[in-house]
Amino acid sequence: MLTVSDLACVRGDRRLFAGLEFAIEARNWIHLTGENGVGKTSLMRMLVGLAPVEAGEIRWHGTPIRSLGDDYRRAVCYLGHHNALKEELTARENLCVGAAVSGIALGDDAADALLARVGLAGREQLPVRFLSQGQKRRVALARLLWSEAPLWVLDEPFVALDTAAVAWLAATLAAHLAEGGMAIVTSHQEVTIAGNTAQQLRLVRS
Amino acid sequence: MRPLITWKYASPQHFYPLAGKLIPWFVALTLIFGAWGLWLGLLVAPTDAQQGEGYRIIFVHVAASWMSMFLYVVMAFWAGVGLGFNTRLSSMMASAIAPTGAMFAFLSLWTGALWGKPMWGTWWVWDARLTSELILFFLYLGFIALQAAIDDPRRADKAGAILALVGVINVPIIYFSVMWWNTLHQGASVSLTKAPSMARTMLLGMLLVALCFWMYSIVMTLLRVRAIMLERERHTEWVANLKEVRP
Amino acid sequence: MSAFSVFLAVVRRDLLVALRRKSEVLTSLFFFVIVVSLFPLGIGPEMDLLRKIAPGVLWVAALLATMLSLNRLFANDHADGSLEQMALAPVPLGLLVGGKIFAHWLVSGLPLVLIAPVLGIQFDLGSRALGVLMLSLLLGTPLLSLIGAIGAALTLGVRGGGVLVSLLTLPLYVPALIFGAGAVEADISGMGAAGHLSLLGGLLALAVFFAPWATTGALKIALE
Question: Which residues does chain B have within 8 Å of residue C161's beta carbon, measured at their own beta carbons?
Answer without folding.
Answer: 149
